[in-house]
């Protein structure tokens, strides 16, 4: 049953076959193209951004084939995955195409999940659930977005929505999105906020450091910025039941949250705008546990717990215990599969084992908290028992 | 004596009178200009960046008058300050002007410090020490930089060098700077790495959030990026005695350090480049304690300590104790004065008391560690006893 010890991966991506075909048809990024390797074989590569270093990255069946996803899960002991389309989603499309493709991809993903194996013969729980997609592109109508929120809420194996940070062109702090937040909150869907654009690449300098700077820093800066702008816009004051899950453990937001609070306190433009200290809002958010180190995970749980004990945010059902214990109730294991494959063939992927070891090694988390981060929290938050 | 309990502020800025006059003569940012307020009085304002929101900020004697600095110190119980020029230093000047002004400002700062009051009648310790300036601008000669490093090393009250992140135009990971790092390390000067540019302001969106996003996020992203690029360039492998102090507790670097290590491990371009895991290098750095929250400070000490225990970096004289205890030996109190003034008249500045309360409240730091972060570490690291 769902309440048993389950390893649930809430950060795992797919390019659904329909989407991969679409990328193959394109001549500008994002695109999938074929090139001949130095040894004469052909390989497909994925170019996510036009200025991406090293001509993109190799791509293969693990990006679209469900059997590959299930094999990866079996290999790492992952019982259930909540799968999301990988960036850049539909961001680059005109509104009408984006709307149509969102609808189709959501149906595709529902089918991908609903026809997946059950966890066991006696269990109604499936091995795959999903985050749907909205056509968040410039000039889309709000009605189109609301229609797709409604579609997703009616697809039984979709439990949330993955989205990037640009909204309909002006970011997520755009007032135009108010009805969308309202609808998402009402539907009880979890928003998985995920980066794609990073920051202006001139920040990385002229040296070839591969993908390290855009991935380690650009991605996390983007999530941090988008979430901070959401906080400053008052979205969490107006929609207190909205559930947003941050990729990569919230990027840099936890470490910068007290500085953020201080900067708000000292700025006449915003000092009186929000209902709470900025640190309060971290206790309203959910964080994946994809930070690769136990000290980082422990710290994230500390700032979530601080929000509950010091700034009075909701304890999400956990009202006693240390900051770290209470904070752990909003953190969820993830792998970022199929990204971060090992450079050399190995049985298990280091990007997975590192995150599992990190959870295991957090000082101040007991066995209960570790189990919850590995799966119990996901079962509760995504309603996987029902 | 220096070994007694001292409160030492290592992050406190000045626009020396010569520099302020220079800013008044300019018609483009950075500049100081006079404007008439709605009530008809005249006020001077500082515009650091051309696209700065709210027409810059009010500026007054606290930015250049030494008596104001000493009054601020007395008001907050600060015994000694290690003063640095505020951004943007000389970045915007042609090489010859930058060279000349650096030399003059370093002499000015030496005089500012050497003629300051002694800590007590029986003490040779002064109340003010300083970080000098290098003419780090495009087209400056390396000899010019080495000449100024030499000048600073001979000015007895200057104990380090403050610098931004652009180097001589290509960032701090520029090979051309190798002789400069070597000379700084040999002279035993501490580099205070401080942000100015942030990231491309398009990241902040169209809403007026005052200075919050560039200050809370832009500044810290910039420091994080510059330090990461330094690590990736191998500077700390080649100059293991180089001492770099990061502003604002290293920005986001501590929280992103395990992700950085993972991204390096998974990228063929850089996977074999460095001598150590990326997390090792955090234990080679120094961090101010300007993060406004105890959880943040505790976490920074945790990742420094992790570097020592898990990745084998130097313990800086502290080889036993918990990670947090060992890590605290590389953290130093600061205020960021005269920035972050209170919005309403108060006896003590919240930006100061918050950082002092944060130090006082770190779980896992005993009285010894707190005293060291408040002053003992600064005495040791800057040789204030001698």
Automatic annotation (TrEMBL), chains A, B:
GO molecular function: carboxy-lyase activity; hydrolase activity
UniProt cross-references to InterPro entries, sorted A to Z: ACMSD, Amidohydro-rel, Metal_Hydrolase
SUPFAM superfamilies noted in UniProt: Metallo-dependent hydrolases
Stretches assigned to the Amidohydrolase-related domain: 8-384
Keywords for the protein's UniProt record, in alphabetical order: Decarboxylase, Lyase
Lineage top rank: taxon: Eukaryota
GO biological process terms, semicolon-separated: secondary metabolic process
Listed Gene3D superfamilies: Metal-dependent hydrolases (3.20.20.140)
GO cellular component terms attached to this protein's record: cytosol
PANTHER family per the UniProt record, alphabetical: 2-AMINO-3-CARBOXYLMUCONATE-6-SEMIALDEHYDE DECARBOXYLASE (PTHR21240), ISO-OROTATE DECARBOXYLASE (EUROFUNG) (PTHR21240:SF28)
Entry similarity comment: Belongs to the metallo-dependent hydrolases superfamily.
Name listed for the protein in its UniProt record: Amidohydrolase-related domain-containing protein
Organism of derivation: Cerrena zonata
Origin organism lineage: Eukaryota, Fungi, Dikarya, Basidiomycota, Agaricomycotina
